């Protein structure tokens, strides 16, 4: 009889349960955005436009053109039938000029469109930042502190919302530009850019402040706010560390919707002659140049290039704003 070695008893594999992990509000919103084809396409277009603006010096260097260089000779512009009109081979895109040249001065359209994107997006983004900062802080302060602070800020909001916005901007922009000329912001082409950022940003915060105030009125009674008070946190600390971060979703939605509004506002003001002025390129200034000399009648391509760029940009930002709104508030239904 042979001895056998004892064998270890068989043990069943223990399956450890998976630990559930929560997602942040922004993480959940990103998952919802990725499921929407429209949101992804609009996000891709927005990123492409931003890269187009940032890479303007590189793209124009590859093309070999400059946004300020004029070509007024008879080798490019007509001197007889329609003086100033580009010759047929220069009106539309070509290897030398990727989008053709503009009438009158013969400047390269692609270069001016690229640098114009820098100016238009810079004004829109900075003006939105000013509005978001003012609207968030003032709205949160009104809702959190209440009392006389709420009364003063609420009346100020009502006052700003009661003003005819377009007429006010049209009348104040030239005044502000003249005031800025003697300051550090009043150097060359920075005057209209700085004035538009200040005007659009300063008069665009009121609606966001009202929305944030309404959100904070409900947040300030939550248990975690009471817990922070019981631990001895100051009102300022609670406001900036507990209250404002919890209205970030509303602020983000407002910001994405405000950017295309400011892009359109800059284009409208430059088109009306109180915004960015020649030779500084912007999409609104290009539209103004197309209609000021009635060039759109003989060269509609000159009007089409900045016009279609403006439409695509505003549409992409609006669709992205709708997607962000629905992602952060899935119960909201589109009207």
Description:
- The model has no long low-confidence stretch (mean pLDDT 85).
- Helix 5 (109-145) crosses helix 13.
- With 335 residues, the protein is mainly α.
- It is elongated.
- It is built from 15 helices and no strands.
Question: What labels would you give this structure?
Answer:
about 0% strand, mainly alpha, single chain, about 325 residues, 15 helices, elongated
The assembly state of the depicted protein chains is: single chain
Strand content: under 5%
What overall form do the CA principal axes indicate? elongated
**Strands, count:** 0
Helix/strand order: HHHHHHHHHHHHHHH
- Overall pLDDT level: 85
**Structural Rg:** 28 Å
Number of helices: 15
Distance between the termini: 89 Å
The major pleated sheet works out as: none
What's the quick description here?
With 335 residues, this protein is mainly α.
Question: Which secondary structure elements does this structure contain, and how are they paired or packed?
Answer:
Blueprint: H1 25-34, H2 37-54, H3 56-63, H4 88-91, H5 109-145, H6 147-162, H7 165-180, H8 190-202, H9 206-219, H10 223-230, H11 235-243, H12 248-271, H13 283-292, H14 295-298, H15 300-328
């Amino acid at each position: 009889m042979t001895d056998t070695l004892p064998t270890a008893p068989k043990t069943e594999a223990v399956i450890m349960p998976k630990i559930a992990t929560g997602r942040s509000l922004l993480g959940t919103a990103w998952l919802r955005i990725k499921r929407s084809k429209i949101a992804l396409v609009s996000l891709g277009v927005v990123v492409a436009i931003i890269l187009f603006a940032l890479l303007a010096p590189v793209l124009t260097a590859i093309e070999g053109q400059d946004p300020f260089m004029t070509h007024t000779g008879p080798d490019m512009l007509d001197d007889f039938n329609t003086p100033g009109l580009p010759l047929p081979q220069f009106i539309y895109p070509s290897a030398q000029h990727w989008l053709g040249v503009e009438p009158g001065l013969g400047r390269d359209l692609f270069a001016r469109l690229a640098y114009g994107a820098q100016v238009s997006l810079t004004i829109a983004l900075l003006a939105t930042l000013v509005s978001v900062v003012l609207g968030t802080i003032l709205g949160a302060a009104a809702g959190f502190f209440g009392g006389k602070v709420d009364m003063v800020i609420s009346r100020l909001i009502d006052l700003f919302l009661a003003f005819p916005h377009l007429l006010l901007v049209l009348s104040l922009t030239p005044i502000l530009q003249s005031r800025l000329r003697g300051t550090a912001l009043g150097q060359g082409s920075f005057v209209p850019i700085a004035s538009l950022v200040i005007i659009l940003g300063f008069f665009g915060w009121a609606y966001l402040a009202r929305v944030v105030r309404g959100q904070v009125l409900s947040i300030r009674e939550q248990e975690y706010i009471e817990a922070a008070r019981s631990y001895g946190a100051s009102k300022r600390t609670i406001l900036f560390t507990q209250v404002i971060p919890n209205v970030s979703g509303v602020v983000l939605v407002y910001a994405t919707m405000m950017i295309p509004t400011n892009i359109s506002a800059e284009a409208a003001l430059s088109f009306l002659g109180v915004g960015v002025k020649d030779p500084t390129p912007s999409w609104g200034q290009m539209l103004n140049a197309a209609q000021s000399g009635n060039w759109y009648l003989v060269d509609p391509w000159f009007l089409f290039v900045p016009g279609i760029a403006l439409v695509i940009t505003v549409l992409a930002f609006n669709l992205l704003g709708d997607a962000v709104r629905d992602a952060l508030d899935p119960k909201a239904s589109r009207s």
